[in-house]
Amino acid sequence: MLQRRLDYTLLLDQVHMSMPKPLGWGTRVEGLWRKSNKNYTEAYKPFVKEFGALIAKNEITKGGPIILVQVENEYSGFGDGVEDFEYEWELLQDFKNSGITVPTVCDDAWLGGHFQSVDIYGWNSYPLGFDCSHPEVWHSAPPDYFYNLYNSRIRKHGPKSILELQAGGFDGWGGAGYDACGKLIGPEFERVFYKGMYGSAVKIMNLYMAFGGTNWGQLAEPGVYTSYDYGSIIREDRRLRDKYYELKLQTQFLAVSPAYLTATPWQLTESKQIEILKGTRGIVLTVMEDTLGLHTKFYIVRHKHFSNFDSINYRIELKTSVGTITVPKADHLLELQARDSNILLVDYQAGGTNIIYSTAELYTWKEIDGINYIILYGDPTEKHEAAFKVPGIDDFSSLNTDEDVEWTYRIDDAVLTVNFAILEDGESQTIRFGNTALLIFCREVASKTWILDTQPPAIVKGGYLIRSASIEGSKLHLKGDLTQATRLHILATESVKRVTFNGKDVSTQPATKGWLYVMYTPELPEIKLPELSKLDWKRADSLPEISSEYDDSKWVTASNTYTPNREKPAVEEVLYASDYGFHSGNILWRGHFTAGGGEEEFWAVVQGGQAFGYSIWDNGNYVGFWEGDVTTGRHRCNFKLPKAWEKGEKHIITVLQDHMGLEENWTAATEHFKAPRGILDYGFKGAKPNLIHWKLTGNLGGEKYLDIERGPLNEGGLYAERQGWHLPGFDDSDWNAGSPLEGFKEPGVEFYRTTFDLDVPAGIDYPMAIEYSNSTGAYYRSQIYVNGYQFGKYVNSIGPQKSFFIPQGILNYNGKNTLAISLWAMQDKGAHLNSLDLRILGKVEGGVGIIKNSPAPAWSKRKDAY
């Protein structure tokens, strides 16, 4: 699997930083983790040996994509308060002994100077935190390290590296939802904080996360739910957020600015900054200068209080190769808009053109047929100034412009200075002199302009996403994604006369100044989706275990009286699921007792992780439930039994608990991830019965799980899962008809199955989701299975997730699909789904290409299923 991913990385012409995480089952390993505890180090060594060998053969020096290896993650907080240098050294040696030769890195959770023995020290930065419920609220003042990224504890050699820079935010159970996180960490955040990092001379900057993901199966830890969209640059369902386009503006600029890589910041006091800004306050100025090259300078201007909603006008003194100049020279001021930053260039070499200075930002520059095209941009209504010097041109007699350019110019000592306004209507402007063409765009136009690495390059203005291009004779072949009819303006070598888009010839019309334009209407056919509420559903009981007649002889007997877990149970027997090999999904417990006579109440302390819940039965009679709460992963219940027990009676207490995943082990030298899932304590009031034994089950086979293709975290302990009812091909012909929208009228678990067909044409990308709707006051939990894969965990009373993206390949877009739903009703009145729909989230022509379905082995009778 990892090798395939690395091969894809090469195919996409990308490089890769590898971060191994042996996060398997360590709950039974004695002692502290992430420390030089021999039990721990011996447990990780086989993984590092195998993983390291695979990485070593894929290093960039051997033709692979790997450029860095991250050996630990946020090794910053320590349970015993002590950084373990012996552990660091041993871990590094293990990686190097596996054959790795590329530089090693480790991301400090903050700028704390931890694990500096790696080749490149790096740290993480999440400046706005994770309060997605108030996306419009930013901190009133930045952290100190935002402007001063090193202190006396940090090594000063090597590139400054941010190995996790905020590009979204996680959202927990009961949270605001990831659209709110995407708004909190949006384009404005990128303009303020990413440019702030450039001003701090950061040279390695890794964004977390560029592409959202899915916690399918039981992959999640308790702090998050099924979706891990993260409000990221690319949504979980592959649609682009607006901040994708802002990031594109910045990365294209960096790609053509090698001077930045060798630039270092000036040391400027606050008073000196105010002097350079001609007395303007409220602005922070950083100047990055390339002292090894042509002394290119990057003047990075940003708000002192970055949450400011007000704009600030200013002039600035620029130190250029033709003297110190206060700009703008014209009778207007520059504007630093609210929640924005500007990068002003000085002595920037754009091909054969020297940009003496520019107050408008540079997007890119490219040479096509001997013409040097320079793209500058700004926001509508802004006024800017730029000065240029071109070798061999003194009088600029060839100066010409579009008719509608709003500009003025002057020529002094062979330097052309132009003043221009960014047009409100989004129209672009062109100014030509010598072999230089200055293209002036508004931000919106620039953000939808695509720079394609053909030979020579091509520039395409417009479109949702232009992926690639190639030139064949007089044809320019474009590949990309469009969501609506779009006019594309194309600037390419003069030999290009015709254009294809996604393999189709399109009518090509000449525009002005060498541009061509095409009008392309994507084919986005309507497709018929099944109405899930109207399908033929089958239903069956999925909780026979509550019956006193149920045979649990094949279950594991919870007979351990010792646990390696530091948290010891309050009762003699160990009722921790992981101690018996069950690590995810629903867990079932059955306690067999002989009544002492007079037992009236049962109490227990149950732990399953944040937002978990549980239900309890006594000989099939409902005792009670805990619906769950986002504030706790542990709960003590005290329930009155349906009736008092009589001496000598046999009783079975059945506990169905949810398992929200194991905890993260963020703090080193701790055992947080071993926090038990199960029953920590229990007892009775009125009398004390005689315990015969406790039995438990989770997924069928436990650590020897049966479904190799879908993996160890796909199934839990529900009867339906153990029997494989969620798998395609299971014969449910003898089941009763029944829909999850009808539900049932008593506490318990029912399982529902149906099938439907899809027929989605090739060449289009229609991401789809299965969606629920909340019902007020109903306590139930539900899971979604598509072709055997668990792709949704829904908690009605907690939320927030109601829409569950199902990727193409899990969902068969051209054939039969099996959909299964588990429904766990916690209240006496039972439960039903308010709605259940399959919806298209977006329509795009192009995009994903041919998708091969994930392996989805069909049902076969499971040996020893119980």
Strand and helix layout:
Layout: H1 2-11, E1 16-18, H2 38-56, E2 66-73, H3 85-97, E3 104-108, E4 120-125, E5 160-166, H4 178-184, H5 187-199, E6 202-208, E7 213-214, E8 227-228, H6 242-255, E9 263-265, H7 270-276, E10 283-290, E11 297-303, E12 312-314, E13 316-320, E14 323-327, E15 334-336, E16 341-350, E17 353-358, E18 361-368, E19 371-378, E20 383-389, E21 400-401, E22 407-412, E23 415-421, E24 429-433, E25 436-442, H8 443-447, E26 449-452, E27 458-461, E28 465-472, E29 475-481, E30 486-491, E31 498-501, E32 504-506, E33 508-510, E34 515-520, E35 538-541, E36 556-557, E37 587-594, E38 601-607, E39 614-618, E40 621-626, E41 634-640, E42 650-657, E43 678-685, E44 690-697, H9 719-723, E45 736-737, E46 748-759, E47 764-765, E48 768-772, E49 780-786, E50 789-795, E51 803-806, E52 814-825, E53 836-840, E54 844-845
Parallel strand pairs: 1-2, 2-3, 3-4, 4-5, 5-6, 19-25, 29-31
Antiparallel strand pairs: 7-8, 9-10, 10-11, 11-16, 12-15, 13-14, 16-17, 17-20, 18-19, 20-23, 21-24, 22-23, 24-25, 26-27, 27-30, 28-29, 30-34, 31-32, 33-34, 35-45, 35-46, 36-44, 37-42, 37-44, 38-41, 38-43, 39-40, 39-42, 46-52, 47-54, 48-51, 48-53, 49-50, 49-52
Helix pairs in contact: 2-3, 5-6
